Amino acid sequence: MAGTIRDSQPTFKPSSKTASDVTPSSTDDDLYEIAANEIECGTFSKGVWTRILVHNNGDVEKTKIECIKLRFDELERVRARAIEANVWQKEREERLRLQELLHETARLDLERKNKLAAEMKRYDIARKAGAIAARLIKKLHI
Question: Does the global pTM surpass 0.85?
């Protein structure tokens, strides 16, 4: 039946997405869009296209579908590496933040110890001064 929705080809606005736009948050639809765009714009590997075209006995439509599937799989691996790199970066930032906290804790501990030592020294000096004063008073009263 001619003229049905199934027979018609939709028209799409040109896409500016490329493989360099793949991020951890890229959706499957984004990846398919990039793959289809590469096929339509002729930026897909000519050698791979030709190999798949020969395998499909010159059937261009089958070749497009296989090339899009193949490129989608490659872009999925790119996304997976981006996710892995993102996780690694977050882990690295977390380790740095923990190191900073440890250094700050050590600094505060040292500061607290120094204050305590100074206080103990003042107390010791006051105690010694009190003892000396008591001896002087004792001597003066004799």
Answer: no
Q: Which of 70, 10, 8 is nearest to 39 (CA)?
A: 70
**In contact, 32 and 65? CB cutoff 8 Å:** no
Q: Which long-range contacts (CB under 8 A, 24 or more apart) does 70-78 make?
A: 71/34, 71/35, 71/38, 71/39, 71/44, 72/28, 72/31, 72/32, 72/35, 75/19, 75/22, 75/26, 75/31, 75/34, 75/35, 76/31, 78/19, 78/22
Q: Which two tokens stand for residue 60?
A: 């261009």
Best CA proximity match to 75, nearest among 42, 127, 39:
39
Averages of pLDDT over runs of 10 residues in the chain (142 residues) are 50 68 88 90 88 94 93 94 90 92 91 90 86 84 67
- Distance set, CA 8 to CA 2, 4, 19, 33, 73 (Å): 9, 7, 29, 19, 28
pLDDT at 1: 46
